[in-house]
Design brief:
The protein is an alpha/beta fold. It is 41% helix and 18% strand. The strands form 3 sheets. Strands 1-12-10-11 form a 4-stranded parallel beta sheet, with helices on both faces. A 4-stranded parallel beta sheet has the order 3-2-4-5, with helices on both faces.
Length: 285
């Protein structure tokens, strides 16, 4: 089978920096306790690899020990959680993606006078929980245009100066439409922050372009990864049968009956070796 592989696939800059920082800590502090607060990235194979190296994944600040080196994950953490972590542990390293950190600081600045934050994102996602912790005023989270329209239709936002921002891995086209609708309703009382990452835009645009040229799409990456799931959703929206897999072992010939050309892309937290293995197996189907 022919495979068209995206050139923008796999680790983004923020993920690469976070993993490099963790690798450096593990190498420098051999024999010492090293942990991450939350999953460093959303990829089970990467997490399993670090677990074999002795890196613990902590689920709360209370799990941290004073003599640990603790790394803040790429998605960032809520502001108050970071304060508590630094009080508890002597060695805390921040591996928050620079784009996420910029978004956090931009939200803090834009809401400093009490403006209400409207955030396009997944409410349960760790990055979103971190972002809203930087808002000085009230915050509202929504994940679709329909949710936003419900907000606009009510009276809760009337008379409030507003800030619109997004989780860094959200769909830019949808965000732009949200911006248009809010600006039409609230005009100059709205401040818009450009917080969607360029790497996200590049991956989404290329996935759409490839989907238009193939009979099926494969997206490789963690099934709990928001940006990976959105790549699969985008391909399906183009009317192309799409399979999301974490490893090549999940590929089945039956999913590609009659397919001559397949597209391949991957989320921003997917290691290159997994993409290579998926491509190799697809070519053999």
């Amino acid at each position: 089978m022919n495979v068209i592989r995206a050139s923008h696939a796999g680790f983004c800059m923020g993920v690469a920096l976070a993993l490099h920082k963790l690798d450096t800590i593990v190498a420098a502090r051999s024999g010492e306790k090293v942990a991450t607060l939350g999953e460093i990235i959303h990829n089970p194979q990467v997490l399993e690899d670090y677990a074999r190296k002795g890196v613990r994944c902590l689920h709360s600040v209370e799990d941290a020990e004073g003599d640990m080196s603790v790394l803040i994950r790429a998605h960032g953490i809520p502001r108050d959680v970071e304060v508590r972590l630094r009080e508890r542990c002597a060695r805390v390293e921040d591996a928050t993606c620079p784009r996420v950190k910029n978004a956090q600081l931009a939200i803090a600045e834009a809401t400093a006078t009490g403006r209400e934050l409207l955030l396009y994102g997944e409410e349960s996602h760790p990055e979103v929980r971190g972002l809203i912790s930087y808002a000085a005023g009230e915050s509202r989270i929504f994940s679709s245009i329909a949710d936003l329209e419900t907000l606009i239709a009510g009276e809760e936002l009337e008379g409030h100066p507003l800030v619109l921002a997004a989780q860094t891995t959200q769909d830019r086209l949808i965000f732009d439409e949200m911006h248009r609708r809010l600006a039409a309703r609230f005009g100059s009382s709205l401040i818009v922050l450009d917080t969607i990452c360029d790497a996200t835009r590049e991956r989404q645009e290329e996935a759409g372009e490839i989907a238009a040229r193939v009979q099926a799409m494969v997206v490789a990456g963690g099934k709990s990864s928001g940006n990976t799931k959105r790549l699969a959703e985008l391909a399906r929206m183009r009317g192309v049968p799409t399979v999301l897999v974490e490893t090549a072992d999940e590929l089945s010939k039956s999913d590609f009956a009659g397919v001559r050309t397949v597209g391949l892309t991957a989320g921003a937290s997917t290691p290159r070796y997994i993409i290579d293995e998926v491509e190799k197996k697809l070519r053999l189907l």
